[in-house]
Amino acid sequence: MMLSRVTTRLASRNFLRLSSTAIPKTQKGVIFYEHGGKLEYKDLEVPKPKPNEILINVKYSGVCHTDLHAWKGDWPLDSKLPLVGGHEGAGVVVAKGANVNNFEIGDLAGIKWLNGSCMACEYCEQGNESNCAEADLSGYTRDGSFQQYATADAIQAAQIPKGTDLAEIAPILCAGVTVYKALKESNVKPGQWVAISGAAGGLGSLAVQYAKAMGMRVLGIDGGAEKKKLFDSIGGNHFIDFLETKDLVSAIQEATNGGPHGVINVSVSEKAIGQSVEYVRPCGTVVLVGLPAGAVVKSSVFNHVLKSINIRGSYVGNRHDTREAIEFFTRGKVKSPIKVVGLSQLPEVYKLMEENKIVGRYVVDTSK
């Protein structure tokens, strides 16, 4: 009986390992209680990590177009309510569960879209954890990083090197990993052309840089002088303004001498996706990344077969993709063009996204 009580006390002590800095009971965060409802900046309880989780003091969080879909509830994928959004959180580990061995208190860690999976099904075994039927999604099926403290599965949490600028790396945790994986899926080789549809947005601006770092030639498609300026500043080779170009398909094929070898569709325009199937080079690959609600991609069977093109969907990257994407960042090969605002200003950022006025990536500072 005495041994049992001692064992129980020891288990209780080891269940949660805490930072020497006191963790508050409440925190600031942005939450909504119904889809499309008010985004409330308010006091929330600080969550407690499970045995396999870490608690991260989130310093910065990128704002992704997926967060807008989660708020609107316009995807055919159930989300939790009420919900704290966000899945590009970068911060410091302040507590960890008893089963966590890959993080220590004080380490830097990142919260990704994929927050956990079963790790036992065929998809997880093959490194396709995002396709797991039990995938747990930050800011969608569980509360995410638009709060000062958030939990993350220790296996899926991103390892961030000490000394890293947490504001700068935040967008890499989703946008960066996602476009890096998509570029790998495109099978475009160094020296070949890749077209980025939506090249000056949060995803596109990173896709341009990853593509250049991988040795590709990059054609960017977007609208407006400000977006062309950004594209040119990050090393893009040729920009096409869809607002000013009458025959987009012909213009892209002429600029790339027959069409790009691959296309990364990060825009949320159904029309743009449909055009990419037309202008891609024979034997090329169209990669679908952006998720406009209710959209479909159409491809003429005759054209599809005659040109022998491939159309592929690319979801978020796995742990290996994440490690590689972060390494590109730490080596200075990619840098997200960010604008930092306070977490309390998140509703204003959502409004800009709805109006398609985002250039680069917004990052929220959770302390404001």
From TrEMBL:
<dbReference type="InterPro" id="IPR013149">
    <property type="entry name" value="ADH-like_C"/>
</dbReference>
<protein>
    <recommendedName>
        <fullName>alcohol dehydrogenase</fullName>
        <ecNumber>1.1.1.1</ecNumber>
    </recommendedName>
</protein>
<dbReference type="InterPro" id="IPR020843">
    <property type="entry name" value="ER"/>
</dbReference>
<dbReference type="Pfam" id="PF00107">
    <property type="entry name" value="ADH_zinc_N"/>
</dbReference>
<keyword id="KW-0560">Oxidoreductase</keyword>
<comment type="similarity">
    <text>Belongs to the zinc-containing alcohol dehydrogenase family.</text>
</comment>
<dbReference type="Pfam" id="PF08240">
    <property type="entry name" value="ADH_N"/>
</dbReference>
<keyword id="KW-0520">NAD</keyword>
<keyword id="KW-0479">Metal-binding</keyword>
<keyword id="KW-0862">Zinc</keyword>
<dbReference type="InterPro" id="IPR036291">
    <property type="entry name" value="NAD(P)-bd_dom_sf"/>
</dbReference>
<dbReference type="InterPro" id="IPR013154">
    <property type="entry name" value="ADH-like_N"/>
</dbReference>
<dbReference type="InterPro" id="IPR011032">
    <property type="entry name" value="GroES-like_sf"/>
</dbReference>
<dbReference type="InterPro" id="IPR002328">
    <property type="entry name" value="ADH_Zn_CS"/>
</dbReference>
<feature type="domain" description="Enoyl reductase (ER)">
    <location>
        <begin position="36"/>
        <end position="364"/>
    </location>
</feature>
